[in-house]
Amino acid sequence: MRTLRAVAAALLGAVVLAGCGAGDGGSGKPSGSPPTGSAGSATASAPATAAAPSASGPASPGATDPAPGKPSGAPSASSVPVSPGPSSALERLVTVTRTGGYAGKSATLAVKGDGSWTRLDRQLNPAGTGKLPADREARLRTALAQADLPRLPRFPTGGPKVFDGFVYTFVHGGYEVTIAQESLTPALRAVLAELPPFEADPSR
Fold it and tell me: 1, 20, 191, 198: which has the fewest C-beta neighbours closer than 10 Å?
């Protein structure tokens, strides 16, 4: 009987010790104590940080973001300065350059919209100035309209060859035509007739 009681007491003590070891995980700390260390701190503080509202409140959509497809700070089209174009009186009406001839000379006549003209030598230095009378300027404009440079080839050809003849380059309305003397159309000959001379009068 004493032996049975001793065995029962030993078994009861073993059960009690096993229960205590399972409760504290073998670390000597009571169960239910919060975990320590960096991992535990981060886990505990994360919900509080995520739930904290912004001090300035929610940002209104589109308040600070630039419009899609438009870089921030880019000037609008209306803010770009536009330089005024030249007046019709100062615009270039026509420029005609003549080269060749027996002496192989070159000269250029530049006529503005108000009829004033400038003669330039081979080096494009001014070699004379003047102004066309109003009726002559009107005839020049008519001849230029009839010449219809946009419809002419860039280098028109035709007519019998003129040796040591001149070659003319007409620039008008954004178009340029270079044509030999023998290939001049009647309208282009009318343009030349209304221009001042390509060479200064040697008697003056």
Answer: 1
